[in-house]
Amino acid sequence: MIPILTAFEQSPDRGRGLARDMRVRWALEEVGQPYDVRLVSFTEMKEAAHRALHPFGQIPTYEEGDLALFESGAIVFHIAARHAGLLPPHSDANARARAIAWMFAALSTVEPPIVEREQASHVERDKPWHDERLPLLEDRIRGRLDELSRRLGDADWLDGGFSAGDLMMVMVLRRLEGSGLLEKYRNLSAYVARGQARPAYKRAFAAQLAVFTGKPPTA
Ligand code: GTB
């Protein structure tokens, strides 16, 4: 059964792979699971047919037979749980649980202040308090990056081999591109680059870029 994802029909990031379908594409590429993509417009995302799959009218969604899922974290976890390659085996239950903890850490501890800053620069830019608030938001991000950098140290990945926790963390950290906040952390920058160098990442990136360029991905 080939799963079907939804992604933006018009890529607002101009193919930079920052929208959350990229996480799901990368996970599927890591485990070698082919997939189809249904592109949706901003109007379609808010219509009843799409909301039946995603109550908040967003992408990505994931359909596989009679299963329909939303939330990139839940989808990546589902893929990681069903296929080998993204989580340590059940025989190493503690390592598996820790890799899952890193997925949650990426989504619920590291990503929120990053998204908060992003939203502030998009929707609060003309507010009188924007310039005062921005440094506070950036300090919050730096606090998390300090802690993450300290924990990663010189390791390649967060806990042993590459896992879905790293996939999610790399994608979350990529959201800082262009902010100037990540560059100061040499180990975190190298960590993101290591993720982006993975063949599965490159295939996923090329596939989402093709939506923007209109040209099929090149090998
Ligand atoms: N928690 C959900 C998840 O993890 O799946 C969040 C899903 C979500 O935010 N989806 C966004 C969406 O559908 C796309 S990814 N937005 C439309 C809407 O809410 O109406 C967020 C995103 C969008 C665009 C860029 N970009 O252009 O750089 C980056 C990230």
Can you characterise this structure?
With 219 residues, the protein is of the alpha+beta class. It has two domains: 4-86 and 200-213, 3-Layer(aba) Sandwich (Glutaredoxin); 90-198, Glutathione S-transferase Yfyf (Class Pi), Chain A, domain 2, CATH 1.20.1050.10. It is built from nine helices and four strands, in the order βαβααββαααααα. The chain has a four-stranded mixed sheet. It is globular, with a radius of gyration of 18 Å. The mean pLDDT is 96. Bound molecules: S-(P-nitrobenzyl)glutathione. Residues 12-13, 18-20, 45, 57-60, 71-73 line the site of S-(P-nitrobenzyl)glutathione.
Which terms summarize this structure?
about 55% helix, Glutathione S-transferase Yfyf (Class Pi), Chain A, domain 2, binds S-(P-nitrobenzyl)glutathione, alpha+beta, 2 domains, Glutaredoxin, single chain, about 220 residues, four-stranded mixed β-sheet, 9 helices
Count of alpha/pi helices = 9
- Adjacency order of strands in the biggest sheet: 2-1-3-4
Structural class: alpha+beta
User: How big a fraction of the residues is strand?
Assistant: 5-15%
Distance between the termini: 24 Å
Work out the oligomeric state of the chains in this entry.
single chain
Gyration radius over CA: 18 Å
Query: What's the CATH first level of the largest domain?
Result: Mainly Alpha
What's a concise summary of this model?
With 219 residues, this protein is α+β, with helices and mostly antiparallel strands. It has helices spanning 21-31, 42-45, 48-51, 72-82, 93-123, 130-152, 164-174, 186-196, 199-213, and strands at 4-8, 36-40, 61-64, 67-70. The protein is built from nine helices and four strands.
